Structures
1.
Amino acid sequence: MKVGILGLGTVGGGVVNVLRKNADSIKRRTGVKVKVVLAGVRDVSQDRICDTSDITLTEDPYEVVNHKDVDVVLELIGGTEVTKDLVETAIKNGKHVITANKALLAEHGNELIQLANQNKVRLLFEASVAGGIPIIKSLEQGLSANKIESLAGIVNGTGNFILTEMKEKDRDFADVLKEAQMLGYAEADPTYDVEGIDAAHKLSILAAIAFGTELQFDKVYTKGISEITTEDIKYATELGYVIKHLGIAKRVGNSIEMRVHPTLIDKDQIIANVNGVMNAVLVKGDALGTSLYYGAGAGDEATASAVIADLIDIINNQTSNHILGWKSQEKTKVIDNNLINSEFYLRLLVSDVSGVLAKLTQIFHDQKVSIEAFIQKKVDVDNNAHIAIITNKINTKNVMNIKAKIEASDFNQDSVQILHVETLD
Amino acid sequence: MKVGILGLGTVGGGVVNVLRKNADSIKRRTGVKVKVVLAGVRDVSQDRICDTSDITLTEDPYEVVNHKDVDVVLELIGGTEVTKDLVETAIKNGKHVITANKALLAEHGNELIQLANQNKVRLLFEASVAGGIPIIKSLEQGLSANKIESLAGIVNGTGNFILTEMKEKDRDFADVLKEAQMLGYAEADPTYDVEGIDAAHKLSILAAIAFGTELQFDKVYTKGISEITTEDIKYATELGYVIKHLGIAKRVGNSIEMRVHPTLIDKDQIIANVNGVMNAVLVKGDALGTSLYYGAGAGDEATASAVIADLIDIINNQTSNHILGWKSQEKTKVIDNNLINSEFYLRLLVSDVSGVLAKLTQIFHDQKVSIEAFIQKKVDVDNNAHIAIITNKINTKNVMNIKAKIEASDFNQDSVQILHVETLD
């Protein structure tokens, strides 16, 4: 089995290292010897984390996808600009493709899957979501008897690291972000991680696999964690919750919900205890009920673990009639965010003058929204009161109306923070 | 694809129900229609949880394993007495076999696997460990690139329910066991669950899959939870630990450790937060690092989820060259329990007279054992002091020597409780 690799950075280097380290056990599992014959790199003279003495390096990636001796191409470059055409070329040349590239799949996955089906090759992407956690294989194989009802994942390690540090050490967002950048967890431009785009890429892939639908990344409601304050985290703790940045997908009748946002979840939920850079995905199936898959969402060898598992799958099942559930699926309607029902958390700053609570609760009453929990915490130096509220399960439009009314009131002193509260039963 | 079922109780009935409920999605995944044609039951006139109108029932189980139309036999009777010969007969008749029977596998798995290989049929058993959690598929497929270094599992829901209730509600073992029996979680004879035999069956299966070794159930060191007291749980909490009944398997050089015992683990470990009847398995692989698989360890449809996932696997991969890592493996040496290194927790009751602490610490000093944590809690009505101690990592023989010396001393007032303390890093 001859492998060509596109990209020999962290992940590509990790793949070469793990293939070498565990060559014996991989041979025992597959019956064949896996050999990396060719790797496309940006600069052949660069230092690498892996030994490349028996691998031909080329600066022309097309040499890899066109090479007659390559059976499987591993696309480990990332980004969508050059990779789309490379993957298409590899598929058209009859090569199986394994990719860790969530952006490529989220944006062009539907066409690529179709092309792979037409060319009777496999396109696998376990490493694209939650790093080394075998969540895609679990959804497709381990949970294959289930109709998946919902899933909720912590799929961005950077965001989870930031929220964990904010909670455990009472630090603010900007401070922890700077540390995350220094540690190499976050990019110089952290937008993809902290604004939820990376998580939305991954959620769209998970939802497609779980529900057997087409990828619809453009329909994911996406909100990041950059506006979470230490106050929010303290109020959440006091109310018995933990704030996690979750990607949530649910089947609702014949439609689905897909949303990425900071979420208050019960502190006793197992996923509330997933901390630091770790990832986890909670899945609810109609037969199994709730299950959870936890592990490293990034790192050279953790990601390599998923890439090589796909490689072993291809070798062992070349002649199988393994069918992806979504191949023949229609585009399923994604529910508009304004129509989603949820409990909500609101944090307000109001003038501490008499009659404010009556006016405030009247606003909720007018929208027919119940207040399930209420904390009025302290009066600050400007004589303002800090308030945190949990509502009953209501429509998103309702809560946005309440926010608008409060912000237009004479007692309001700051923009109203709104966060989802989710019961993951 | 024609299926014959042995046993139509909780699990068998669940399988029929899930196959019916999700017939469409299973057909989409497999391309074939799965039909249960024949079921062997003890009493054909008995009421069942599933509709049997289109299934032929027989009271002769051999009719199922000998029937020419049956392609796959699901063995869901349990126990080893009648099932061993039934499974052997099915395999010799060229039928694939799926079983949820951990006792059968733990005790006769090596011969049965060999027989299946000789007859070129598959013997699958995802449901035998941790119910619906796809832990065997994850070890074989999702983690196939890894050399597994260790695993630790909460694989008996009854035991975990008892320990959770003892901790959360300050109830004693006998009291919770009675409730577990009333709720149907524990059998009238609870020995298999509370003394760890069920967990040892499952651990021996997990270790064989993880390390690619033969099954060696008889070599598992097994200790139950019946001697855990509410004092132990309180001391553990105070020291920052949770007590869980774990099955632990580790690779140590060319040998392995296999042991089932109550274990103190750090309260912040994710597996420490697995409560009630839920199961979880923590796996450490050399590439992925630590990952965890969590879900329902029992229940009709949860177990059916695993049985049917195996069935879908057989249908989709009939022609694959899927190889179980352990097929060609030698018997690996299992390390004697006396030679295992661990931190330990000791709980003592001693007379509260002067000089006792000096004598006690001298016993530890003589065995070259350090005391890492020490609590002397209170003096009771009989003027005895309660003491809890955590040692450094030492040999099991050392701690047994300490126990013997303390119990032989003039100041000792009760047998010394000894529990393992495990760092699951």
2.
Amino acid sequence: MSGEIAIWVDGLQAAALPLPDRGLEFGDGLFETLLLHNGDPLYLDLHLARLRRGCAALGFADSEPAVLEQSRRACADAVTRGWRWCALRVTLTRGGGPRGYAPPADAKIRIVISATNLHDVPSRMAEPAALGLASIRWPTQPALAGIKHLNRLEQVLAAREYRASGTDEAVMLDQRGDVVSVVAGNLFLVRDGQLFTPPLDACGIAGTRRELVIRRWSQALGLAVKEQAIAPAELETAQEIFYCNSLFGPRPVASFGQRNWNSHPVCTALYAAYKGELA
Amino acid sequence: MSGEIAIWVDGLQAAALPLPDRGLEFGDGLFETLLLHNGDPLYLDLHLARLRRGCAALGFADSEPAVLEQSRRACADAVTRGWRWCALRVTLTRGGGPRGYAPPADAKIRIVISATNLHDVPSRMAEPAALGLASIRWPTQPALAGIKHLNRLEQVLAAREYRASGTDEAVMLDQRGDVVSVVAGNLFLVRDGQLFTPPLDACGIAGTRRELVIRRWSQALGLAVKEQAIAPAELETAQEIFYCNSLFGPRPVASFGQRNWNSHPVCTALYAAYKGELA
């Protein structure tokens, strides 16, 4: 592992985070996971836009110039190491400060960047995924819905569960029992030649690839996308389901509940649209 | 500040946390804040019981012997430093591991302990607090309610808001609009010679001092305690309100909304019961 990951704290290569740090203490922070291809961070503008929304929600000082400068150095380093495909995680925390929940008014944002070699994994469409159903549900929190903050326990517990049960991913529901997403990605279903995906107004993360499916790749295919509540049973009767995240792009689903899917024409076409943009 | 805090990571004095760490990455961890008096951690059994409940909920390996051993050393160190009253924060994280939400099955729990000198602050009942009303609400999450995990963004944002508005603390509501707690403590109201406090089945932290108020200190005063939903308006019409946490014990409330309270007989008596146990 140690040869396959490189870490920077506030612009310097580091093996440790200065303490105290409010990111550790309270999850007082944000992150983005970008896919690097030959040192190029894909869809950087979408990641920065979500990060800005997160900074506004949490009251973080603007640190975009430092994020860009430090990311650039990490990207250049990945190229030097010969890492063709790479996951770049950019974490912002509200740094140190006195004991207690209240952040210092003049908090200095701390930037932690880690680059992990992905070898050739993202170079082709991922194998169709077997999906479980997570027993833990997303928390209801409209004030923080959509942004990618550091409070991620539900996804950790859902991932722990699907790993133990041998599936590749798991569908996560909201507190009402409607579908929200998988653990690490946004979910879509295909029905009557149309795409459907859940709204993210009370929980969930507004994925960059979700935005691309909705605004760009589906349009290239002439498919309409509708955001609406989806019951778990609707997934099983769909013509096709798939999810997407920054590392996989669109990934087809092989099975959920009692249902198996053997062909994935819509996901395959969306993946081709995505791959076309990378070329 | 630096002379008033001491930090240990896995039993060694340290200024930094090894990276990667899942506590930072996802809030994959738990914590306890204990009050030390002359090196003695008060109500240690209650803190350990809550930590055990948290470890069970998150699937953490038992690390109580190491927590006890490392806490003991931090307590002894605080005595050496002449810190009579001290806040001891014990943080457990699921340590390092490969990229992604799924924790390693054999994760080694990491223990971070920090001791902060409180000088004489906890030696008498705190001044009556002016309470605001937080605009952010607790998230609805029955699966994690009561335990003290590291996902604490709502409390951070509420604390940031009350600091900016100049109050001492703030009432936090649930998603329905009922009262849950203050940012750092559990809330009680006095009405018709009885105590009322909200249930914590969907959100909030089950405080050690809340438990002591309910099971012990109220009984010493001959007061019944009832857990039931409380609307914010009910606070304003109460004879008295107070909150409690591990550092203050019971703390009276001076004002909330349109209401001021000039006498705090129940809180004062509960504080005396608490202080009697320390003697």
3.
Amino acid sequence: MKFFYSPGSCALATHITLAEVNADYEPIRVDFGNVEQSADAYLAINPKGRVPALVTDAGILTETPAILLYLAQCYPQAAIAPLADPFALARVQAFNSYLCATVHVAHAHGARGHRWANEAASLADMKAKVPETMAACLDLIEDEYIRGPWVMGDQFTICDPYLLTISNWLERDDVDRSLFPKVDAHAEMMMERPRTRAAWAEHFA
Amino acid sequence: MKFFYSPGSCALATHITLAEVNADYEPIRVDFGNVEQSADAYLAINPKGRVPALVTDAGILTETPAILLYLAQCYPQAAIAPLADPFALARVQAFNSYLCATVHVAHAHGARGHRWANEAASLADMKAKVPETMAACLDLIEDEYIRGPWVMGDQFTICDPYLLTISNWLERDDVDRSLFPKVDAHAEMMMERPRTRAAWAEHFA
């Protein structure tokens, strides 16, 4: 598989998951500094001009929640999703969907407000609200969704690399991660996993 | 199952899917006019204060992409997702994730801009950009993602009720659906399905 990513993007979740399932993959960095994500060569891979994209023998996949579930299904021996229990799997997908559609979107208003508004004053207004919206999301995750120590309880799942990816954004978003003790402990535990550390090192190299 | 919804919200996708799989469910309307979604009684069901929420014997589920996959798994005889093919299933989930995290979010900037900014001028700026962002999303869906006649080709899937839900918003978003012939034909075909029509009638009653 070829894995297209940009450092610090949500593609980190896929990067860690690829390492955790011990997949054979080639990481390919898309240079956002040179707007490579909007060049024809990359748009032929992902017409959305975003990362991650995963090129498999069957075709190309995008969207973090879909890619993570796909990896869980392709590497069942890694046991990173409750594949045999539709309700438990739906809880996993609901958590990842919340990260994707609400938390990531809240964060994106800091640096990518131009997606949704044009005026400089609007972008500044959006950016100023990010600490409040991100803290509200993290409150909900802390109080309602993390079971501990992993997101889904005793079992490490595809929710965990995704949560680390987003909790890693909190400093940039002016949110103090230590105000969310379970999320904070989760990030520390993640970084004790050898494969996660290796993926992290490769991702930010 | 108890199904919490609000008319015209993204919960329409779940409403149609419940009908298409012939599920036994009780529809419960959450009165957004009276901000019932933020009242304690509803927050006990969904702490996010959003719809849809599906109360099952196993527990409560939220987030459209997760609920639709759950229904596909619970009603395999309805054959509304390629459950035996991880790659094909990932394509389904990627499409629904795009609707959830990009297209729905673009639409939400029309009436729910207060989620991401405070000033009246910012909200007006966001609202004014919605026709452009939604048209860009629909261009991508029309050109890259709908295979036709259904989203995934010959097989009706959980992508179809979700696409109808969103293409139904286009008029409100000042986007001319007829500029997207495949999306337009898709909406017409959906409304020829008796169970979809019945769910639609119940939803908007």
